[in-house]
Amino acid sequence: MKYFFFLGVFLATMNGWSWQELPNAGGGIKANGGYLTFYSAKVPVVPTELMAAEIPGMKYLTDQIMSWPMSAKNRYHMLSLVYPTQMRSYYKLDQSKLSAEQLSTLLKEYSHLAGVPESSLVLFAVTSPSQQITALFPTFYELKKETEQAALLLHEASWIGVSQLYSDVVRFEMAAQAYFEHAENPDNYYRFFSAFDRVFKTGGMEDTLLPASLRFDLKSGQLQGQMLLKDILGRDYLQCLSHDKSRRLSEIQSACNPALAMEILKISQAKSQSLFFRAFAERPLIITSVPPVIFSTDTDFDISWNKVDIDDVYVDFTKERGEYSMSFPLRSKKSKALLGYVGF
Fold this sequence. Notes:
elongated; alpha+beta
């Protein structure tokens, strides 16, 4: 394909680099003489080294990343994929150097990927994942919203480090722009962090979607700072845990996990406006307590749980053990004594 040879020559001429793989493009829709990302266009289909200050949308995106409700490790990881450094480079591509034939070939390729007619397709950027280089087309600078530019920068970062499906990346890009523009909308908020889990694979739901959902619910009032444990895990599950103190953890889980799954489904339906319980329905919660309440070790069931009144134990969501650790104190409602911890 002539375009890919040309692009390799373009970069090699400037810096001695060549691209060894198919670039991954950020595309959008051309309408009414202007440019729109897929989200702005409401189309439900896959669709020279620069400093940070020279990249529109970069400051907005980095400010967003720093505010995301996830661990510092994950925020740092995201910044390393996005922010220009010695290892991560951005260039402004001069589209005038692309011949009509080369541009046509490129548009045909991504028209096929996006399922959009070539006449309606616009390319904003291409990225080489192995070299962590992104080339920005002039059209990127013509986007009218920094939320659109930030979403496309995330789109390009999505290709670095992990293998992706184009459709997943575009869905994530759309979710990101919706979140940037209306983060107060619970569906936009949930879809973004759910898509984030799938695309960046940063450690699982407990690292991103669960803490993000919990913070949304606490802020919106869908969840109270203190809740009875039975109202989170269900009475049937807690009774199952305390039924036979002689069983080991693996036996307890095998016997009680079905009750947990059914309880979580029931509670999530009753609390349908809660993002936290919505996440429960997608991934069963696992208890990882410390002595003396639930588990005394990784394998032994703590017999003192048998003596605890299920109606007396509450979770204090306002006292997380560590930032975004998703581990919270279990206390007695009557005595306020610390009984242990519950981890999500």
